[in-house]
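Hi D.,

Good news: the full-assembly prediction came through. Inputs first.
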Amino acid sequence: MLGWSIITSFIILNAVYHKFLEPMTINEVALVFAASVLTGIVLADPETIIFAYIGSLAITTLILYASLTLPASLIAITHPTLRAALMEGAIGIVTRIVLIVVVVPCLIGSVLGGMIGERMRIR
Amino acid sequence: MIVTFFATLCIAAAVFLAASTYNYVEFYRAVEKFDAKLQNVKVAVDENNVKVNITFEMQNPTNYVGMSLREWSYALILEIGNEEIDLSHNSISYYSEPITITPQWTRNFEYNDNLRATQQSTSRFLELYESYRDKQVSWNLKVQVILITFMGTMYILMSSPLTSEL
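Then the structure:
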């Protein structure tokens, strides 16, 4: 669950750190989907997958928000535009990304991965 | 085997996530600490012409990677009493090839400006020059830089005072 969240957060944050205000591309969504398929294969059990999915969603949101607002906790930012971009931008980005990039691709990917994982175990 | 691959991927992602988050935090420090320092101003008056030589330094004292300098402009202000004379200004663009700002980046700039007495600020300077010659005066260099960052284009205004002999 934690591993899944770390991989998803890494893919998303790596994109955000390079283009803060631009939307995610299809490549990033595909990478999140691929990571979810891989997690599904590893877990290979529908109940565990659903439980891990809910937990991963919460942890990913937490990692994203904590990472994006980290400068505000570590540095005294005096630049007003920068501070506003950091605080308001972080909430907007996390909400938008979690809803668009995480919720659906992670669910479909992990369920698909779970099905593949079950088949691989049967064989 | 797939579990080992997944575990390795998790560790690699955690390491890269920590490294890129550190760089992200450094970005805010870089914007806060980006600085321009006026080092020297030399003025030579030759009849009705004024030659100004300015040396200053721009620096990024942080370890941030991912920023470049697209344009900068300066205005050299001479402060005498309650009066401010905008003596010299210039603007340099690097639109085609922005300067990459590396960690702990420092760059020295030196500019010469020839001012003619026909300009209002120069003629005012020449009026005051004799009375303030060889005396300590205050300069103020106002610098505006345009940086290309992952947040888009950012404008930073800086000001660097200096007291020197005229």
